[in-house]
Amino acid sequence: MNWWRAFPRQETTNSRVVGVAILTLIALLVTIVLPPVANSELAGGAAIAIVVLGLSWLTGWSGQISLGNSGFMAVGAYAAGIWAHHHMTTPVIFTLALALVAGGLSGLVVAIPSTRLRGPYLAGMTLAFSAAVTPLAQNFTSVTGGEGGIFLNALVTPSWFAHFFHGQNASINANAQWTADLSVVVAGIMFFFMANLFHSRTGRAMRLVRDNDVAAELMGVNLSRTRTVAFVVSAAYAGVGGALYSLLQESVRPETFPLTLSITLLTLMVLGGMGTLSGAVIGGIIYSFSANLVAHVNSLTGVNPTSNLGANMQGIIFGVLLILAMLFASRGIVGLVTPLRSLWRVVMSRRRRLRDTLGTTQ
Amino acid sequence: MVTLAFNNVSVRFGGLLALSDVSFEVPEKQIVGLIGPNGAGKTTAFNVACGFQKPTSGTVDFPELGRGRLKPSQLARAGVARTLQGVGLFSHLSVLENVMAGAQSRPGGSAWRALVGLPSVARQERHLREEALSQMDRLGIVEFARSLPGGIPYGVAKKVSIARALMSQPRLLMLDEPASGLDEAELEVFEELIVGLRASMSVLLVEHNMDFVMQLVDQLVVLNFGRVIAQGSPRDISTNADVLAAYLGIDE
Asked: Do the domain assignments include residue A79?
């Protein structure tokens, strides 16, 4: 009996490398033609996509909810910012690795008490964390620069890059493209790691704990350890994303990481599709379009962008989108593709059957 | 050699004595049945054995693993597998992945190596998948590999839970009511399956279906009101007056 025939396509590390590499390459090619403003938006979207992916892992795979990921972002951003401020020449990749470690450590600190909590209690605990981070940053002026934050200029466009694409030493175009490319590559690496984790035994352990913790324990899964790992990974992703975001903004400031950012992250995750790589990509894309969208809605409705209503337009739009998603696409935009794909399969198998019957009668 | 030994185990839930001074052994590569009327303490005994319930007094020993109270996840890693009464599958994972989950306790699942995507991790995962499929093939459930547990017949779900338990290559397999809800034909298959397991492991099973148990086990332990009222071979038990009284409600 050839039961293995039912599984001809097996995901391997190679296929993941190729998949992520192709997507990254496409994004890199796109940055060549995009105007500078769009490239900056794309870069921000890539940074946010990393954070959304980390949240998606936590919620979609391990079944825990977090409103603390804006706090983890802040931890990563400050770690990177403080370092880069004092050590201008450190390669960006090192700064980001530092943010990864710092974010992960903060995740560990939050996870140790949190893994005993569920649902709303866990949400409350993580909310308290992200609520605490901003005032801490505001008040530890000597380290964090207080309200004013830290200014950085860590993303220097290499001259070969500027020359190759734009034929001159430095320009706004070259800078925007360079930062976008860098963000896309970092996101690509982080997505590759997560794809590996998804399809590993660690990834399975997460889903076991999420689905049935009693049975998971019987399978030899250590529940609190698994939940802690979930948090640490999620926080490390938030740390990297937050650091990248701040490097792009060329500053780390407390106001970049308000509590509402955590809710925005949750919204992006749900809109894109929870627990999937492509969902996080879509979340990042939505984010990069959101500034434009807000401007459009403000001008369409005649709302003054500097008014109270105009300033909160993003929250309103995301809120409406979230409600729509809950009503019509509870599995996010990715979830909309699944029925299309199964429809496609049905059509194809009908065609094949038709062809087979025609073939035999002729 | 003894795989599992209960030494004077008592469990008290408030005023209720669920197990009282229970002692019995599961010898290596034997099938031991734990029977008794409803509320006799069978499931409590199971929960104690796999670490979910702490005994109020007495000890549960796994001589091969050394002494000391182990957590359920540690016991699982040391070769104690258990099925759950309500089958307890993972509802959002395919049947295949449910079976693969049984191997979760094996060594060598490092998250770091998985993260960077070492080929050895992918290979390990592929072997696991093939092993799970051949285990399912053995039980005749391979065509359900891609289904979700919600969409399969109850008898199949039971087999999935057994395939999952077997994936951990246990030394002791504990089956909680393997026969409940199965028809005659399925029972025969199960009987054959469980007898076949004796070659490689010890089996402790809780069961209500007496016909099924009697043909299957080497030894029986009969519980009633949390006490062991009899233990011995099925033939001895079937003529034991205390057991008959407990089951049929004759009290002199």
From this structure: yes
